[in-house]
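Tutorial, part two.
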Amino acid sequence: MRDFGWIRAEPHGIHVVPCNAWIDPAKPVERALITHGHADHARGGHGEVFATPETLAIMGLRYNTGEEGVGVPLREPLDLGCGVTASWHPAGHVLGSAQILLEHAGERVVVTGDYKRRPDPTCPPFEVVPCDIFITEATFGLPVFRHPPIEEEIAKLTNALAAAPDRCVAVGAYALGKAQRVIAELRRLGHHDPIYLHGALEKMCALYEEHGISLGELRPATGAAKDEMRGHVVVCPPSALNDRWSRRLPDPITAMASGWMRVRQRARQRNVELPLIISDHADWDELTATIQEVDPQESWITHGREEALLRWCQLHQRRARALALIGYEDEDD
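Running the prediction step on this input gives:
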């Protein structure tokens, strides 16, 4: 077996040794390759930054990185020097998200970042990229996590709204990706009424619109009268569901869109009345199916429930190891 000594899993990220580049580093570095814009993968303070144009725009909005960075179109090879080539391929996670394929000395390594396999109207679908080493996330790497069809979860939301027209449904959704996906899926499934937004979501939704993702009529919840929001969906950050901001809503049905809503205790802890199991990560079946489709010489597992996926690989005679990276945290997926 090859030793792949040119790429190392170090505590603060994946280190591409020949060109001294880091993938999603947890601290500022001279050269960073970024998979997507969530805060546990993208940060300010780097020297050179390489990412998709959409991810750079998200970083500029969220981390005030300005116009810094090199925008790399999907699938276009980028020469990093010292015999290393990188290219970005769709990950299906959020707008701009991409797996990074690294090629050196005839060897291929894919770093997935976060990904999902379900269709999503807000971003291109995941692309299977053949490689020798597959570095995969495992956020939902336990057999209990099997996400239901999103159509079922959106139906729960719209049925709750129809059953209580004098109330609103307040959906807690992560500000980057989840909020926009919930809105886009509502539109796809025929809900064309105005949707109200917490102020913290307005700029990111506007950025999605600027990149061609139509979200329909959105109205600010701040300043809207209670009666105006009756019978409507209100989308907000999860933290807003139980704070003072929610008091302005008309008797809200509290909902939360997250893969973690599969765990009833999490829903109870958040005082969620309507748990919506909507995830922007691959579930257990999708993680294992992806490893089989990619069929690498070895899988490196990170960012989540590493032990169970590692054990699955061992039981299926697949070489694998768990990484011990720091700085990766659960999102309000």
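The helical segments are 53-63, 150-163, 178-188, 199-210, 226-229, 264-269, 284-294, 306-315. In part three we will examine how such features are distributed along the chain.
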